[in-house]
Design a protein that fits this description.
This protein is mainly β. 3% of the residues lie in helices and 51% in strands. The chain has one helix and 14 strands.
Length: 144
């Protein structure tokens, strides 16, 4: 099992060298780095093969995720620009990542824990992303 903890917050360069991959059995896949910063041309949430296993197309490159707690917006996404500016810097909220059995991200913001998992449907070009909120007594919403 591959697991990354809070060290991701202090060493983003290391975190972007660690990757995850899930497949659908027909040439398609989802793949990126631990903080979901796409560093390769074929990183994406849904990459389908038109003629398996070739002619792959990135259909969904990434997700923009924002957690809204008590009307305050907190981005969970991270973008790295040419000047190495990280904006937004959602990786700062990433508490833990586990690669097995499926990629799972744990985001901690104050007393709110958001767990995101990603999986693919075998035999289909379908990526499932699920979110689960734990331990909050606040007004919380998620925008994807």
């Amino acid at each position: 099992m591959i697991s990354v903890g809070r060290e991701i917050q202090s060493d983003l360069a290391r975190a972007t060298r660690q990757e995850w991959l899930i497949t659908n059995g027909i040439g398609g896949y989802a793949s990126s780095t631990v903080p979901c910063i796409n560093t390769r041309r074929y990183h994406g949430i849904l990459v389908a093969a038109r003629r398996p296993p070739v002619e792959r197309l990135v259909l969904v490159s990434r997700l923009e995720e924002t957690l809204i707690i008590d009307r305050q917006e907190i981005s969970l996404s991270t973008c790295v620009h040419e000047e190495d500016i990280k904006n937004p810097a959602g990786y700062l909220h990433l508490e833990r990542f586990e690669r097995d059995p499926v990629p799972t991200w744990y985001y901690q913001i104050r007393d709110v824990l958001l767990i995101k998992t990603m999986n693919m449907v075998y035999g289909q070009n379908t990526t499932l992303v699920t979110y689960k909120l734990l331990g909050n007594n606040r007004e919380v919403a998620l925008r994807v």
